[in-house]
Design goal:
Blueprint (H helix, E strand, L loop, with lengths): L7 H22 L5 H27 L12 H10 L6 H8 L26 H32 L3 H31 L3 H9 L1
Length: 202
């Protein structure tokens, strides 16, 4: 019986996909003229890049190496081409890349991450990495959805809706900042999440 982890392919696929997403988001960041859009893209891009490296690192820790595709990925190449175009608005890029539909938090149906833990052989360290990854991906989906809705509302002349969506995006950023501070306090002091949260709230 092989000792090769059954979930190695999942880790490899996630690493490649996240690295590709980071690359085209960086390309988009370089072409957008809006600071608010750039801020959201930078948050998501940093996460994608870190995910790509973290999963490649975990594969290495398990005794294997990341396997890259022999041929270029047509979808990744198309995303890069779209992201780098200066004749497309940010709204058009959102729609063509399908990023305005990523947030499924209000749907009753399971999302793409729902079955990641069906494999009961996943070790603790890999499980922790996957759990953080899934939570960050879902939050990124919410951030991108809010940004898309704001751009869409502005394009339709709905100022009130745009302001509301801008507030949602701001609240999401505040939540993200609080979570980062909480994690920093917990890491520094060695306290549990509940105690850290209490200190941050105070």
């Amino acid at each position: 019986m092989s000792d090769k982890p059954s979930y190695l392919g999942l880790l490899n696929a996630v690493s490649l996909a996240e690295t590709a997403a980071h690359e085209y988001l960086e390309c988009w960041i370089a072409t957008t003229t809006r600071d608010d859009v750039r801020g959201i893209l930078q948050t998501v891009s940093a996460r994608e890049g870190e995910h790509g490296l973290a999963f490649a690192k975990r594969i290495n820790e398990l005794g294997y190496t990341l396997k890259k595709k022999d041929e270029p990925d047509p979808k990744a190449e198309k995303a890069m081409a779209l992201a780098g175009r200066t004749d497309l608005s940010d709204l058009e890029k959102f729609e063509r890349l399908g990023l305005g539909r990523l947030d499924t938090s209000g749907d009753d149906e399971p999302d793409v991450f729902a079955r990641f833990f069906d494999d009961k052989t996943i070790d603790i360290q890999t499980g922790a990495l996957l759990g953080r990854y899934i939570c960050e991906e879902r939050d990124s989906g919410r951030l991108l959805r809010a940004c898309y809705e704001q751009l869409k509302a502005e394009a339709n002349g709905d100022v009130a809706s745009a302001a509301s969506d801008r507030l949602v995006a701001l609240e999401a950023k505040v939540d993200q900042l609080c979570a980062a501070v909480e994690h920093l306090v917990a890491t520094t002091n060695g306290t549990n999440g509940a105690k850290s949260k209490k200190k941050v709230s105070a």
